[in-house]
């Protein structure tokens, strides 16, 4: 894995974190307990911070980035991802905030200053435009994204199960010697 310092900040990994060797993490990034970063993920915490919670997985080919502070936006747009989040393959997250128990479908794009509340599914290929707020308990789909319907109990349960499936998988990877 490539952990690269930028302006004196080096990515910090909590206990039990798995980062695939082909991934690149740069700058002010903190990753919580038992989370996982899979092949070819690029995460740049160079002009702002990236914070990833516990038991969260970021899958193959995803891009995580931020926006720098400006006169119009003095705090800039950090990237904050909560606990038990599943970020599907080839997702782009840019300067947004994701709560807990979220599934971001494959190929989705979530842009600056978006707030995604807890217990949300964002469908594959969806585009969440800047500044949008996604309300807790719903499925969102489309480009631009629209609220489709309330999540059912099985879907709500799956959000935590999906995260736990990746905790199990990363533990299997951590137990294997690198070859």
UniProtKB/TrEMBL annotation:
Gene3D superfamilies: Hexapeptide repeat proteins. It comes from the Bacteria. This is Gamma carbonic anhydrase family protein.
């Amino acid at each position: 894995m490539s952990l690269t310092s930028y302006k004196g900040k080096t990515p910090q990994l909590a206990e039990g974190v798995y980062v695939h060797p082909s991934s690149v993490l740069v700058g002010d990034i903190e990753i919580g307990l038992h989370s996982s970063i899979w092949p070819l993920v690029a995460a740049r915490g160079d002009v702002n911070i990236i914070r990833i919670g516990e038991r969260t997985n970021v899958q193959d080919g995803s891009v995580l980035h931020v926006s720098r502070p400006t006169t119009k936006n003095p705090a800039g747009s950090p990237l904050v991802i909560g606990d038990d989040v599943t970020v599907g393959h080839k997702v782009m997250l840019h300067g947004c905030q994701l709560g807990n128990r979220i599934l971001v479908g494959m190929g989705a794009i979530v842009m600056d200053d978006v707030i995604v509340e807890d217990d949300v599914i964002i469908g594959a290929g969806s585009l969440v435009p800047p500044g949008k707020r996604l309300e807790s308990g719903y499925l969102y789909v489309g480009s631009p994204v629209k609220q489709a319907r309330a999540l059912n109990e099985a879907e709500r349960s799956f959000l935590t199960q999906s995260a736990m499936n990746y905790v199990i998988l990363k533990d299997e990877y951590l137990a294997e010697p690198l070859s």
